[in-house]
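Human: Respectfully, please carefully check these tokens:
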Amino acid sequence: MSAPTRPLALVTGASSGIGLELAKQFAQNGFDLVVVAEDDELEPAAAELRGLGAAVSPVRADLTRRAEVDKVVAAVRGSGRPLDAAALNAGVGVAGRFVETDLDAELNMVELNCASTVQLAKHVVRDMVARDQGRILFTSSVASQAPEPFQAVYSATKAFVQFLALGIREELTDTGVTVTALLPGPTDTEFFDRADATDTKLGASDKKDDPALVARQGFEGLMKGEASVFAGSVTSKLMGKLSAVLPDAIAGKSHKPMTRPGSAG
């Protein structure tokens, strides 16, 4: 039997939202997939992706646990195929007043959003650099661009991801490996429910971006080798870029009415 000729992509957080839509982009553009999530939605997502013509290997893993991250790395390497692209997308949020939010929930968020991303990126980058070929997409956020009151730890984790991506990108400029950061604005996913942020103006807004649009723009930016992709509607892109240039104190104050608990009412 001949070896598979389609390229292979890894997508984490692929059972729903932006992650699933990113996986669809890869499938529709000729990639086979290793998809990762911890919930029961993973298998239906994998079936949907197979319907788009991709060979799909689902890996159920809790990426807050280092051994589970190693399981993902082993699954990719065990495929016997080079990894052509990786979308390190898994992440969660925790919203609320820092004095009141649950410490364990925030530390788990740091483990998922930051530590697991570093751990996976370490292996992915080493393998791709050894081949001198590959593309990596980090899902950051417009929240990485300025302090976020009532999402203080979340925005800090996304700032970590953003600077990690850009730092690695600069290191790899003399290689065949590209690194792209995806910065979505408020997107119509399960994020706000899971973060307990549906009682905020931001969480209750009916003007969130379509995750399919965000994913398509992210995928296109990845394939072009762009450094950062502010994704979503024109408004979301402008707000993200504005946050990046405003002084932190002003940006933080401007976000406060949108993220304050109870502001939806």
